[in-house]
Amino acid sequence: MSRQGLTEGLAEAVRMSQPEHSIDAMREAKKGLLDFTAASFAGREDKGIQKLLRLIKDEGGAPLVPVIGQGTKAAPLQSAMLNGFIAHALDFDDVHSDVRGHPSAVLMPALMASAACRHGERLLGAYVVGVEVMARLGESIGSRHYEKGWHNTGTLGAIAAACAAGYAEGLTQEELEKAIGFAATQSAGMRVQFGTEMKPLHAGLAAQAGLLAVKLAQSEFGGTRTALDGETGFFGLYGDLEKAQHTLLNRWGAPWRIVKPGLWFKIYPFCSAAHHAADAIRKLVSEQAISAANTERIEVVFPPGGDAALTERSPKTGEEGRFSVEYVIALALHGHELTVEHFNSQPIPGNIQTTMGQIQRVYDNTIQPAPHAVPKGRFTIVRAYLSDGRMHEARVDCPKGAPGNELSEEDIKEKLKLTVPHEKAQDIITSIERADMKDFLAYIE
């Protein structure tokens, strides 16, 4: 890398970006916005949103930005927090394998606030830039960041949101360097919060932090212009400074990360680390007639560390079950569809808990990952040992919805129509196809 610092280089790359010139990037951005909207409407009745709405009502503020599916507006910073929470409430929102986290639930709420106030025409391009930043941060931070317990959606999302909103707002080089620093100093989020209401709030707080960072920069607030650099900067503190120096800015936008590897659009409302197992157990149930009644035990085989996000082995509620491969498999064995109603705050029934106790995680470092695996190096094998002595297994390297096994645009539209009345869904789809952000904001309230 040149003598140019990481902060200076990132700010310059963001400012010089021209994603609107890429047909592929803009197409994928529209798909991402569709999926973000579908996931948000699916989560609009989560109990946590009412708690947060009560908090902002007590605070007051100028109601300028729609809160998705709530029939109300909020002040820009409040809306970023609220809409980030709603989008991530069910863990039904997209994932990016380079991020090891959820880009759209952070980026879109910050950009919606910007669009509602003045800069809607740059929303899709800014979204592409935000995904690029967040993916590159994820690649550059190194694997130990996540493994130590940080939640990348929160820690990386604040900086990415600041860059996206900074692009939308047309910040100067100096302003954007400072905004990156303001966001970096607010970066936070711990994986110990998985399975609680705080986990989706990480997305909202990151969106809010990124938007606040831009506002601070625009107000000429004082701060460092080198927050990513050196041993005491962001990468030195949180991750791998040497790796960042070689990867953060290399081949910027060639291709855009929203295009390749692309976003992973979910078909299940739970952690993506359990999607491989979900596809595998559904295949066994369908093709081998496996059920809780005829199965003695289940082994779930991961590469070492492949289940790091699946923090719950004995969840007590469906909310905790979003991060439990045992719960996902037990549901399928009892003939349940893996749909939203099973992943709420209600207690898990006793028969499901009993079946979870028959499921064991196994780690095998001798199994070769597939070249097309998503995320890279990952797989899951589900082995079912039946009461008649037979054993059946299914392996999944690239689950449905992930890049390489992706959902079509029509699939995503159907996901939206499952959560929104048909006429409203069609209005939202049309506004996104036309890139009419004014209408889009009007339809999502």
UniProtKB/TrEMBL annotation:
Tell me where in this chain the MmgE/PrpD N-terminal domain is found: 15-240
> What domain of life does the UniProt record list for this protein's source?
Bacteria
Gene Ontology molecular function terms on file: lyase activity
Q: The MmgE/PrpD C-terminal domain covers which part of the protein?
A: 268-421
Question: Which family, according to the similarity comment?
Answer: Belongs to the PrpD family.
- PANTHER family, A to Z: 2-METHYLCITRATE DEHYDRATASE, 2-METHYLCITRATE DEHYDRATASE-RELATED
Q: What is this protein called?
A: MmgE/PrpD family protein
Lineage of the native species?
Answer: Bacteria, Bacillati, Bacillota, Bacilli, Bacillales
